[in-house]
Structure formats: C-alpha cells, structure tokens
Specification:
The protein is of the alpha+beta class. The protein contains 5 helices and 10 strands. β8 and β9 form a beta hairpin. It comes from endosymbiont of Riftia pachyptila.
C-alpha cells in the first residue's frame, strides 16, 4: 500500500486542469483522483482519499494499492510505503471522515440505508417535537456519531476511547449520465482508540470504514500516541 499527500501546483493552468475531467459534473474529485492511475482505466477503485483545505490550499490524502502517477505539471505529490505495524493494547489518535448510515427495514420488509442523524431525529419524532423539547442538535450529532463509530470499531478489533464528532454535511453530487443526483452525508471524527486485535484493525485501515468512499469518505488516519 502507498499513502500520498497530493496538492495542485499553485501555477496550474485552469484550462489544462479542466481538460482532465468532465467540467459539467460535480463528480470532480473522484475523477481527479482516477487521473492519478492512468495505466489501467478499467480497474476497480483500489484507493481511499480525503480532501481538505489547509491555509487556503486544497490537498488530498490518498491511500492506494498502486503508486499514483501524477502529471508533474499539475500535481505536487509526496508518496511513501504504508505498512502499519500494530500490537494489542496500542493507543492511537485518529481522524476520520465517514458517511455514517444504519440499515432499517420498511413496512414491506425491505432494507435500506439511512443517514444516522436523520434516523436519530426520526427515532425521537424530531419534526413534531416543540422546539423547546428538542435536544441540542450538536449533542444529538455527537451521541449518534459516537455510538455508530464505537460499534464499527468494535467489529474490527478496536475500542473507542474518546471522540469529537462534528462537521455534519449533507451533500449531493451529479454523475454524467445519471438521472438522479447521488446524495450522501459526511461526519468528521477525531479522537483516540485502543487496538485490541491488530489483524482486523489493520484490514480496516486498508479498506476504509462505511460507504461513499468514491466521495472522499472512509479513510481512517491514525498516529501513535
């Protein structure tokens, strides 16, 4: 595996960049990342990424099975091999942007995914509660996100110690040729955890957590404490 930090060169020609992807689509970041793997355009997605802005500069963190091949006239890329060595009882700090969902069955017995924040609101009949009786929204987001993450980490060999949950963002993206927009939400998590079983947890680092990975969700970043 490879982990890369990728930035657009500050002197990149906007017209040249526009030719790299379908400029009429908001599916851009996914297309941009795919451009870093030109040798096998028909391969299935084998990478996770996260987009973020620091000091006004856009950057992408990328975890991939293949080493990215970037056009040096457009990208600044720093890549290194990624082989985490973990042990039971190890404590790690982490960051995660995820699309947290739960699966519910409807009256007909059909299962579908639901945004955990919308689901939490539904469970307490948020829309019909008087405003004075509604829980503080950041508290609802914190509690729903913490519960969701703790359950999923436990399934993959880790215990959640502490976490801050914020940045709830419903999003809509348009893919060329699709009749309907693709909708999803994201939450940002930052905290500490303890590794209980290194093998499944390492696999989680490689494969990511939750859906919407094509939209920059799922990459779990960790560092030693």
């Amino acid at each position: 595996m490879f982990i890369s930090q990728i930035r657009l060169r500050p002197d990149t020609d906007p017209m040249r960049l526009a030719r790299q992807f379908d400029n009429s689509s908001t599916y851009r970041e996914h297309q941009l990342i795919w451009q870093l793997f030109p040798r096998d355009p028909n391969a299935e997605r084998d990478f996770l990424f996260r987009a973020e802005k620091r000091n006004g500069t856009q950057r992408y963190l990328l975890l991939s099975q293949r080493q990215p091949e970037a056009d040096p006239a457009i990208w600044q890329v720093e890549t290194k091999t990624y082989r985490p060595r973990l042990h039971s009882g190890q404590r790690l700090a982490f960051q995660l942007r995820a699309n947290p969902v739960v699966t519910r069955k409807n009256a007909q017995g059909r299962s579908s995914r639901h945004d955990i924040i919308m689901d939490a609101k539904k469970q307490i009949s948020w829309s019909t509660l008087p405003a004075a009786e509604r829980p503080h929204l950041p508290t609802l987001i914190q509690q729903a996100g913490e519960r969701w993450l703790a359950e999923r980490l436990a399934r993959h060999g880790a215990n959640l110690e502490a976490v801050r949950v914020d940045g709830y963002q419903p999003q809509s993206s348009h893919k060329k040729g699709a009749k309907k927009p693709i909708t999803h939400s994201s939450l940002d998590f930052e905290g500490t955890l303890q590794v209980e079983d290194p093998e499944p947890f390492t696999q989680l680092l490689y494969t990511g957590l939750g859906p919407a990975k094509a939209f920059g969700c799922g990459l779990l970043l960790v560092r030693r404490l």
